[in-house]
UniProtKB/TrEMBL annotation:
InterPro entries documented for this protein: Homeodomain-like_sf (IPR009057), Transposase_8 (IPR002514), WH-like_DNA-bd_sf (IPR036388)
GO biological process: DNA transposition
A Pfam family this chain is assigned to: HTH_Tnp_1
Molecular function as annotated in GO: DNA binding; transposase activity
Protein name per Swiss-Prot or TrEMBL: Transposase
Domain of life: Bacteria
Annotated region described as Disordered, given as residue ranges: 53-77
Amino acid sequence: MEQGKRYSKEVKERAVRLVLEHQEEYSSQWSAISSIAPKIGCTCETLRRWVRQTERDQGSREGRTTSEKQRIKDLERENRELKRANEILRKASAFFAQAELDRIPR
């Protein structure tokens, strides 16, 4: 599966705006998405996800906003780094404690 940012922020915003502005002209939001997605050059599912996320960010749909998702991602990264640092400190502490026990008393 292809990773990375294939579509610019401007393209995403334009596509979502088109769906939201023209959905009244269609029988459903999915119909609008199905019509607009090929014109933008993305899949219907991709455009649907963009629309849903925009609706969450605007507060018109339940779920995590983009800023909340980013905050969680940052906290998870920080948590992993702290766990890694704790493991290093734990091993270093055990190493030095063993070295102290192995010292010959003078």
